[in-house]
């Protein structure tokens, strides 16, 4: 089939590579234009653009998806299907064009965790199982008919980065299975279950990534790993933002200290939660580099007790 790929982020790279070695023809790769990034504000390409260039695919950098010129270009390309991975929301004038539809890889078991940050919220909510859903885009965010869906157990110590890498690979395999099934006419789309609970995965902002130390240690641990390596969970230490990249549960340990109390014990950096302490393994204080919890304890905590906010 003739395919146009839409994507920006690294989650779509395994799919792009699978398409390159598949019998399907990639007509073009649609991605965002280069944008300034970093301290030097150097123009930086999306990960998808870099990979498409390496694979030799035609690249269309598009700012306005509703632009009549762009819509006409899509129409002239005469693609059978659009593949959309880690991209923007397509307007109806775009997703309605291909005869086989526009299909998306979503890293959750829809209708669970609809929205832009499903991997983070899956971990934050302490889920034990997640999965990948291949669905057809239609009106509404992540509400379309399902083509394929597969579930996987979540290792209890994985963070969002590890889970994202895994789901990007298995999602690419499932997407290829879906494309082959569409081409052969063997896939029968089905609606998302009305009996399953609908949940949402909103964007991540500073307001919803701040740690609440009054929660049980397991909940705080899941919150931290769900936001690692980016955008990172954070708290306030002496008025400065302290990001927590990695933490560890201490299952046999209890504490009577007030939630948010920070102290060091034999060089280990500990913080009290509602029922038990967590060991902080990797942190970054505002304006400083990433350090281990031991380094932070030696440099800032020593024999003092602090209260995180």
Features:
309 residues; alpha+beta; Rossmann fold; Methionyl-tRNA Fmet Formyltransferase, Chain A, domain 2; 2 domains; seven-stranded mixed sheet; seven-stranded antiparallel sheet; 8 helices; 16 strands; 27% helix; 28% strand; elongated
Shape: elongated
The whole-number mean of residue pLDDT values reads 94
Which homologous superfamily in CATH is the superfamily of the largest domain?
Formyl transferase, N-terminal domain
Q: What portion of residues belong to β-strands?
A: 25-35%
Uncertain residue segments: none
Strand order of the largest sheet: 5-2-1-6-7-8-9
| SSE series | EHEEEHEHEHEHEEHHEEEEEEHE
CATH class of the largest domain: Alpha Beta
Number of domains: 2
CA distance, first residue to last residue:
55 Å
CATH topology of the largest domain: Rossmann fold
Sheet having the most strands: 7 strands, mixed
Share of helical residues = 25-40%
CATH hierarchy: architecture of the largest domain: 3-Layer(aba) Sandwich
Radius of gyration: 22 Å
Number of helices: 8
Structural class: alpha+beta
Number of strands: 16
How would you characterize this protein structure?
With 309 residues, the protein is an alpha+beta fold. It has two domains: 2-184, Rossmann fold (3-Layer(aba) Sandwich); 206-307, Formyl transferase, C-terminal domain (Methionyl-tRNA Fmet Formyltransferase, Chain A, domain 2, Roll), CATH 3.10.25. Helix content is 27%, strand content 28%. It contains eight helices and 16 strands. It has helices spanning 13-20, 47-55, 68-77, 92-95, 118-124, 160-184, 217-226, 293-301, and strands spanning 2-7, 25-31, 35-37, 42-44, 59-61, 81-85, 102-106, 129-136, 146-153, 233-237, 240-249, 261-265, 268-272, 277-285, 290-292, 306-307. The strands form three sheets. It has a seven-stranded mixed beta sheet, with helices on one face. Strands 10, 11, 12, 13, 14, 15 and 16 form a seven-stranded antiparallel beta sheet that branches. The chain has a two-stranded antiparallel sheet with strand order 3-4. The radius of gyration is 22 Å and the shape is elongated. The model has no long low-confidence stretch (mean pLDDT 94).
